[in-house]
Backbone:
């Protein structure tokens, strides 16, 4: 696996590279700011970009905005965001705009090396890894009441299996119902959670985030 690291702290990015190397993962490029990340992705075509949210010049959200730009230029680029806090606007855009190959972890999680390397591999393989604290903050922004309370028992079962990453076929097999029934339940879930079809939202992921943040 080939990785680009975008982090303005030399010590931290070297430390990340060392952790990745210990896990058999090659770091092929570094970036110290947003434009550097976009350029490094274009040059190296990595399997994954590990990105800090706060980067020069303002140290607010430049890294996350650059990650969105890099992903727009190279659709499907796996992005693992590392941060000390949650930047809600751009995090929602990153996660909701097609969440395959997206991760958002708080930096304190790096202390668990095995968990960090597992997250790197899962995101690079197209999975989604979202820190529980990130989920809570994003849902608090979206939620005025709790629409999850309106779900039926069967709809909750379907949503729980979706949260395990199961396909409609797998959900149908587990619940011993038809795929058509599963699709109907999922449609009902979207409706009750107010998740209307939109080009910028991945409704299945947003529904799972709501379930996980309950």
Residues:
């Amino acid at each position: 696996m080939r990785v680009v690291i975008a982090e303005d702290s030399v010590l931290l990015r070297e430390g990340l590279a060392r952790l990745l190397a210990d896990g058999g993962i090659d770091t092929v490029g570094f970036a110290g700011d947003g434009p550097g990340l976009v350029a490094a992705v274009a040059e190296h075509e990595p399997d994954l970009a590990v990105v800090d949210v706060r980067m020069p010049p303002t140290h607010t959200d430049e890294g996350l905005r650059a990650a969105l730009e890099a992903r727009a230029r190279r659709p499907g680029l796996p992005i693992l965001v590392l941060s000390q806090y949650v930047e809600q606007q751009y995090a929602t855009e990153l996660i909701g705009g097609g969440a395959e190959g997206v991760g958002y972890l708080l930096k304190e999680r790096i202390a668990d090396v095995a968990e960090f390397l597992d997250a790197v591999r899962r995101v690079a393989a197209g999975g989604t890894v979202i820190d529980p604290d990130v989920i809570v903050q994003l849902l608090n922004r979206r939620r005025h009441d709790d629409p999850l309370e309106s779900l039926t028992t069967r709809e909750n079962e379907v949503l729980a299996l979706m949260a395990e990453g199961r396909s409609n076929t797998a959900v149908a097999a587990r619940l011993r119902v038809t795929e058509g029934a599963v699709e109907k339940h999922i449609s009902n879930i979207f409706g009750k959670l107010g998740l209307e079809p939109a080009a910028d939202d991945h409704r299945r992921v947003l529904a799972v985030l709501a379930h996980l943040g309950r």
In short: The beta strands are 2-6, 26-31, 48-52, 79-83, 102-106, 128-130. The radius of gyration is 18 Å.
